[in-house]
Amino acid sequence: MTSYVKRPEPVSISRKETIIERIIEKPVEEKQSALDIQALANAVAQAINISLPKQNNIINVDGTINNIDTFDESKTMGRLAEQMLVQRGESKANFNDLGNVKTTKRDQKDIDNTIDLISQLDN
Amino acid sequence: MSNEDILDDILEEAVDDPKEKSKDESKTENIKSVNEQKIEVKTDKIIPTDYLAGCGVDIGTSNIVVARRTKDGTFVNRFHRNMLYPLDISEEAMDLLEKSSYLYVKVGEKYFVVGEDALTLVNAIGKGEVVRPMKDGILNPSLQESSDLLFYIVKAVVGDPIVEGESLRFSVPADPVDSGINNKFHEMILKNFFDRMGYDAKPVNEAMCIAYDCNPVMKEDEGDVPLSGITCSTGGGMWNLALCYKGLSIVEFSCTKSGDYLDEQVATMTGAKKSKVIKIKEKILDLENVDLSDRIQAALSVYYDEMVERMVHHIGTQFKDINSDMDGEIEIVVAGGTSMAPGFCNRLEKAIKTSELPFKVYRIRHSDTPFYSVSQGACIRAQADWNKKTK
User: Fold this and answer.
1) pTM for the full model?
2) What is the ipTM of this complex?
3) Which one of A14, A88, B141, B241 has the fewest beta carbons within 10 angstroms of its own beta carbon?
């Protein structure tokens, strides 16, 4: 089952904010409709080269406070995906392989250069 | 027309080569890059088997494409139309399947004819609609059998790993700007598929695959910066966009209003069947020379314009404020099946010229292999993983 989460309409995301989000892996929910104190604090902290603990709430522009659920859902998703792969009824296919084949020829040196460059990336 | 006549007609129709249309895009030459290398694309009867370890899979809403690379640098792409035609179990259906060479999956009380045959069959019968195991870039939640069906299809297209724990990268969309779809579950399902098959599988952003395959270059005063620029993958369910710098993704997002959305809107507005719209879009439509006497082509043209304008609008809003940090001139590289309509890049170029973007664009390049760029990029990423793993 795919779950749907209602998100606010998008507005602009600045590069600084995005990079910071990527580095600290902060959840991004609600960022468009709220003033994200944590992101600002982190931006300042990064600028002066210190680290701050994460906070789990954001203050909306109307002054109300939203809590961010920081629980890691990936385990649940993994378990759910595992369960979805269990065959529940009879099923069969009349084929073992599918598809048509096309080949493309590239400059091997260019590809090797790209592989060398992206081998240095972490993820 | 009897079933047999229909079958004869259908069986005579060869599977279309999605590359052929792209090769005819002479009108878009002016905006393509000055390609230093000419890339050959051909159909091989004999499939090379001396593959390097590392497999790339483009799991798209419309197509599944798997790329492997041989030791001499050739990419071998296997592609399959990710489409199904459901038939309830009946004598007529059994008869049709027995007399034909259709490939099908039977799940519970239903048969699903798979691939290109699904489209030809629905066009010939003129009844029902094709369904897809995926929708908007993820598993189709309205099709109960979607994971069963996709598993059979993926297994048959991808095949077994060539070495134990072979690295594999499969493309996943970024979070969409126009929907609250959660991609995580879809990603987990696919990772489970591939792990069960014996691969060491990881996801890779779809637009970033285009960067790995096409190497966009940013022009700075100090010189060219490789793997830097904007890449865009226009698929059936979504278009995906990324801004990257030296191979690192800076911003990525997607939008669900892509090829399928066009088909649905045009079908609704014109009253035509979606399968007919798809046929016209893929076989007849030329965005440089639209036959306005044809209501379907005229409507497709309008919705293609809307698509590129929406794309440029979101580039402008999502990448706002970037200009302060990125002084270089940017290259935009476009790939994906929906970009293969002749004239697509020209329309994008026009939309970009008439908009205010927070950076300079020095050229828009259409991938030389638009249909295969995502799978090839994923393959390159997987080979980098394998090299790292075995060092």
Assistant:
1) 0.73
2) 0.75
3) A88
